[in-house]
Amino acid sequence: MKARRDIFQALADPTRRSILLLLAVSALTPNAIAAHFDSSRQAVSRHLQLLVACDLVRQEQQGREIIYHLIADRMEDVEVWLRQFRQQLALRFR
Description:
Elements: H1 7-11, H2 14-25, H3 30-34, H4 41-53, E1 57-62, E2 65-70, H5 75-92
């Protein structure tokens, strides 16, 4: 079993957050994703690989194309953490 990287590491970068927003709308090829950014295709590819390593995105081979899909269920980990954080803040600042 491979070790999964930390989801918060992926979310720390604004480009990766933007990629996730794009993929929330529809599955895209790397070139379609890269078209939304001023950075190189290679830089976008590195961001995508980290998102895959964090299990936020999955790759699907369709013929010669690779299509990236958001794994929306993984955002539940973030929701749980935010809920716990908000509860602690509410207790502290009552």
